[in-house]
Design a protein that fits this description.
single chain; alpha/beta; six-stranded mixed sheet; globular
């Protein structure tokens, strides 16, 4: 288990948080659905921090629903014992998580702090940040690792003047046994994901997801959650798995597109600029095609309204209607 135990200040502080409106273009995940439940989130927090809190109301949820940067957003954010925790779930390896979390934490602090007080002679207290990534991709990573913002600094010759450390926990089945033992919901989630991947190797993704859901319900693995949210879980699982495969394909496509654009635009902008444009195009194109595929699968199931399909896939309502 990661050494994530913190010194806890028992004095509760009150932070004023404005409740923003949800951004419907953000695609939710099963991980976020599961741990948006306060009881499940408290269980996960206790497992990570080796604590034994039992009152879910002690968690002050401060997730910013409209904090979007380049189509990305933080999964879960909450304050516990005056500390601010940013929890992120990733199914593909992403070395840029520290930089992403830097944007998120700035947005969080902007919401928590009265700007006027920054010009006073009194020190403005803020909750100490903690950054955790729960990784369950297919690329092999250790049970616990760290990603540092300073790794991205160019020509760093001294100690970094700004640092942000993300603790990465591998939550695939068979990893971090002690963590799984102390958070049954996380353990069962890992089992469900493992079954989807296992069956997807030998059958269509639609069949693999449905089989995994039926099997888990029958065996008591996330049974209540899967039964209550069956249709939404199936559609999200299909999207998440498709997205994971698509991002792997993009790794190669981005390089090739960037390389080709870099050479063609080399005289004007240089190879680096060309690669950047190719990478941007590859990401945008791949994401759009993945959204279309998700919408088509949901239309085929004939169990979702067009509005629901648009919200989950990220397409506009008109785009979904055209796919009909």
């Amino acid at each position: 288990m990661a050494k994530c135990k913190r010194n806890r200040n028992k004095t509760k502080r009150n932070f004023t948080v404005k409740t923003p409106t949800a951004n419907r273009n953000y695609k939710d995940t099963i991980f976020r659905m599961l741990f948006s439940d306060r009881k499940n989130l408290l269980s996960l927090y206790n497992a990570v921090n080796q604590s034994d809190y039992n009152n879910p109301d002690d968690l002050e949820i401060v997730t910013l629903e409209n904090a979007i940067y380049m189509g990305m957003k933080n999964d879960l954010a909450f304050i516990m014992d005056t500390n601010l925790y940013l929890y992120e779930h990733q199914s593909t390896y992403n070395p840029n998580m520290p930089l992403r979390d830097l944007f998120y934490i700035c947005s969080e602090y902007q919401k928590l702090v009265d700007k006027k007080s920054l010009y006073s002679s009194t020190l403005q207290k803020i909750p100490a940040p903690n950054f955790i990534e729960f990784y369950n991709g297919s690329t092999a990573v250790p049970d616990c690792a760290e990603l540092r913002l300073s790794s991205a600094f160019e020509h760093l010759s001294d100690e970094p003047k700004l640092e942000l450390i993300v603790t990465v926990l591998n939550v695939n089945e068979g990893h971090n046994a002690e963590l799984m033992q102390h958070c049954n919901t996380l353990n069962e989630y890992a089992q469900y994901v493992a079954r989807v991947r296992h069956y997807a190797a030998d059958m269509s993704l639609d069949q693999a997801v449905e089989r995994a859901v039926d099997e888990c319900v029958r065996e008591g693995i996330l049974a209540e959650f899967l039964t209550r949210n069956r249709n939404e879980v199936i559609s999200m699982s299909i999207f998440e798995y498709d997205k994971e495969l698509e991002e792997k394909k993009l790794r190669k496509a981005e390089y090739e597109a960037g390389r080709e654009a870099g050479f063609s635009e080399g005289e004007k902008h240089g190879h680096e600029t060309g690669f950047s444009e190719g990478e941007k195009y590859g990401i945008e194109r791949g994401t759009f095609l993945n959204s279309i595929e998700t919408a088509k699968r949901m239309l085929k199931l004939q169990e979702f309204s067009l509005e629901k399909i648009a919200a989950i896939s990220g397409l506009s309502l008109d785009e979904v209607k055209k796919l009909q």
